[in-house]
Specification:
Oligomer: single chain
Radius of gyration: 24 Å
Helix content: 40-55%
Distance between the termini: 101 Å
Length: about 260
């Protein structure tokens, strides 16, 4: 091969290298931003123990072959371990909806569907939490669930920040508080207590945090609710805490009720 031919090949190779980043080297955010209108699909690994039916049911496996019965159908569908599947609806370059599934398989895509394939679970979680923060529509609250399900991701610190961020959409903050209650960390309980105790915080957000405390393991949630019932300066918040303590059927809650009633 001549020197000129080699030089030509070298120039072509250099030009090809300069075309731009490949899809695999782009961030999820960049790839979604390229879509003006349509749907974007992606899949990623789920946390251990997460299963689903490929449709509308997602659960944490209890180790005993979790199953779900749907409506009045005379059949049961197995909750299968599988990837998290997320569909983003894009309108005018803005994500307006987030749908989440676990397991199952994709239907044949329409011409307006972009499939990102299998992406990194931590990167997907980061993208979805960023989407939740910046979204001005329902996609914000909808993006939190799949972020929670992503393997190798710790999201409760982000959820706590979102719950406290008054600049965020109200429903997104409430969703962050709820999912914070599902995080497997004692620090999550402490964060919820902090929100409840903040007298300057929006009352609805504080009520959501009280409910979230009721969803924590009893050894964490019940003592926290008792503290709220005893010490909150807001009667509505105290009432909320007492209500959820009543639902707990915990002996410590019953002892508190007895104490309150006998001192009247």
């Amino acid at each position: 091969m001549s020197v000129r031919a080699l030089a030509t090949l070298g120039l072509v190779g250099t030009a090809l290298l300069g075309v731009g980043p490949t899809a695999s080297s782009q961030s999820i955010d960049d790839r979604v931003a390229e879509v003006d209108e349509g749907e974007v699909r992606m899949s990623f690994a789920a946390k251990p123990g997460v299963c689903g039916d490929g449709e509308g049911t997602i659960s944490t496996d209890d180790g005993r072959g979790w199953r779900v019965r749907r409506g009045d159908d005379d059949w049961e569908q197995t909750c299968e371990h599988g990837p998290v599947r997320v569909v983003l609806t894009v309108r005018d370059n803005e994500v307006t909806r987030v749908r989440t599934y676990v397991a199952g398989s994709w239907r044949s895509p329409s011409r307006a569907t972009v499939d990102l394939g299998t992406v990194s679970a931590p990167q997907a979680s980061d993208y979805l939490l960023t989407l939740a923060r910046r979204s001005a529509n329902d996609a914000g609250e909808e993006a939190i669930l799949p972020a929670m399900l992503a393997d190798s991701s710790t999201v409760w610190p982000d959820l706590l920040d979102m719950a406290k961020d008054e600049s965020l959409r109200h429903d997104t903050r409430k969703s962050a508080v709820f999912w914070l209650s599902q995080a497997a960390s004692e620090a999550a309980t402490a964060g919820l207590e902090e929100i409840v105790d903040d007298e300057d915080e929006d009352r609805e957000i504080r009520k959501t945090a009280v409910f979230a405390l009721s969803q924590r393991p009893k050894d964490e949630g019940v003592p926290a609710l008792i503290q709220v019932a005893r010490n909150s300066q807001d009667a509505a918040i105290r009432k909320q805490a007492l209500f959820w303590l009543g639902q707990s059927e915990d002996p410590r809650a019953i002892a508190l009720f007895e104490e309150i009633l006998t001192r009247r």
